[in-house]
């Protein structure tokens, strides 16, 4: 058996370390690309005119909704994007007008206390960047994006504070 040669993982001579500004620029470029690709994935989902059933269901569930736009890929599930009390909300309906789920961005201070406390204990050195509240069938789940020095994490949490890492990304 031949011995395994060690591998030198240090940077080659003359290589420079990435500066914080360069890392930040690369991160912003990554986020912009991610947002652009998300928009492209919805490009097939065209804005549409909703049926009266859908419009009535929306006004019943979300009185005061404004700037409503409707979308569907398959004419079975319908997505309404709108503003309610100065917040952007997305609601999902079936073709009969039954509310299936809602999604909205919320401020960190609107997280349940159990979630806030557990995040502070488990991730004391990471900063909350975004919080998405997703509600379906009476169950609420929170997706909290955390930024650390070297990573981004998306934490999935129940209202009671049961948590798991939904996604983990290393910064470049």
SSE layout and pairing:
Blueprint: H1 20-41, E1 46-48, H2 52-61, E2 66-72, E3 77-84, E4 87-94, E5 99-105, H3 113-122, E6 127-136, E7 139-147, E8 151-158, E9 163-170
Antiparallel strand pairs: 1-2, 2-3, 3-4, 4-5, 5-6, 6-7, 7-8, 8-9
Summarize the structure.
Helices cover 24% and strands 40% of the residues. The chain is α+β, with helices and mostly antiparallel strands and 172 residues long. The protein has a nine-stranded antiparallel sheet.
Structural overview:
By secondary structure, the chain is α+β, with helices and mostly antiparallel strands. It has two domains: 45-103; 107-171, Nuclear Transport Factor 2, Chain: A (Roll), CATH 3.10.450. It has three helices and nine strands, in the order H-E-H-E-E-E-E-H-E-E-E-E. It has a nine-stranded antiparallel β-sheet with strand order 1-2-3-4-5-6-7-8-9. Strand 7 and strand 8 (151-158) form a beta hairpin. The radius of gyration is 22 Å and the shape is elongated.
Low-pLDDT residue spans: 6-11, 25-43
Largest sheet: 9 strands, antiparallel
What's the total count of β strands? 9
Percent strand equals 35-45%
CATH top level of the largest domain is: Alpha Beta
Q: Mean of the pLDDT scores?
A: 83
The CATH architecture term of the largest domain is: Roll
Helix fraction?
10-25%
Separate helix tally: 3
Question: Gap between N and C termini, in Å?
Answer: 38 Å
Shape: elongated
**Structural class of the helix and strand makeup?**
alpha+beta
Tally of domains: 2
Strand order of the largest sheet: 1-2-3-4-5-6-7-8-9
């Amino acid at each position: 058996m031949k011995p395994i040669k060690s591998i030198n993982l240090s940077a080659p001579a003359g290589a420079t370390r990435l500066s914080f500004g360069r890392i930040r620029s690369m991160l912003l470029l990554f986020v912009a690309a991610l947002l652009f690709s998300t928009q492209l994935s919805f490009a097939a989902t065209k804005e549409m005119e909703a049926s009266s059933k859908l419009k009535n269901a929306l006004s019943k569930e979300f009185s005061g909704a404004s700037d409503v736009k409707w979308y569907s890929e398959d004419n079975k599930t319908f997505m309404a994007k709108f503003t309610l009390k100065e917040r952007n909300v997305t609601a999902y309906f079936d073709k009969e007008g039954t509310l299936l789920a809602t999604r909205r961005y919320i401020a960190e201070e609107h997280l349940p206390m159990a979630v806030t406390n557990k995040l502070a204990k488990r991730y004391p050195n990471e900063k909350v960047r975004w919080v998405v509240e997703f509600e379906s069938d009476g169950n609420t789940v929170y997706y909290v994006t955390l930024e650390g020095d070297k990573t981004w994490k998306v934490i999935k949490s129940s209202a009671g504070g049961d948590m798991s890492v939904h996604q983990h990304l290393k910064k470049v």
